Amino acid sequence: MSNESRYERGWETLEKINSQAGERILDLLKDISPEMAKLVIEFPYGDIYSRPGLNMKTRELITIASLTTLGFAKDQLKAHVFNALNCGCTKEEIVEVMMQMSIYAGFPAALNALFVAGEVFLGEDKEGVSGRVVK
């Protein structure tokens, strides 16, 4: 598998979930580490998210659970809550995942995640999400 095909597959996958996220990553890292931006497209989205076996909704709920337990990845959590909505997750499902993580990560991590989700939900109510539902 060539690096170019990984990158292209990553772009295709990312565009299905959140078409603006890849451009944002490239822009934020262009002067710091364009190589890291390329890896973010290739590895998570080209190699992992594009695999068969789990649908995008499940992948996003798993990602939200993991980011919630980390407790410090606010920007990434916000992006994946948005992605989850684009993949057909409901607000209730997202909230339930975060609440369940309070068992494993503690209440502070779960509360911080819920506050992030609330910001995304508020923005979604005002602006809407992409309207794409990725299976």
Instruction: Evaluate the radius of gyration.
Output: 15 Å
Shape: globular
CATH topology of the largest domain: AhpD-like
Overall number of domains: 2
Content-based structural category: mainly alpha
Ranges with pLDDT <50 over ≥5 residues?
127-135
Number of strands: 0
The SSE string, one letter per element, is HHHHHHH
Strand content: under 5%
Distance between the termini: 25 Å
Within CATH, the superfamily of the largest domain carries the name AhpD-like
Describe the 3D structure:
The chain has helices spanning 3-17, 21-29, 34-48, 56-70, 74-86, 91-105, 107-127. With 135 residues, it is mainly alpha-helical. The chain folds into two domains: 1-51, no CATH class; 54-135, AhpD-like (Up-down Bundle), CATH 1.20.1290. The two termini are 25 Å apart.
Summary of the model, kept short:
The chain is mainly α. The protein contains seven helices and no strands.
Task: Give the key terms.
7 helices; single chain; 76% helix; mainly alpha; 2 domains; AhpD-like; 135 residues; 0% strand; disordered C terminus
Write the layout of secondary structure elements.
Elements: H1 3-17, H2 21-29, H3 34-48, H4 56-70, H5 74-86, H6 91-105, H7 107-127
Helix pairs in contact: 1-3, 2-3, 4-5, 4-6, 4-7, 5-7, 6-7
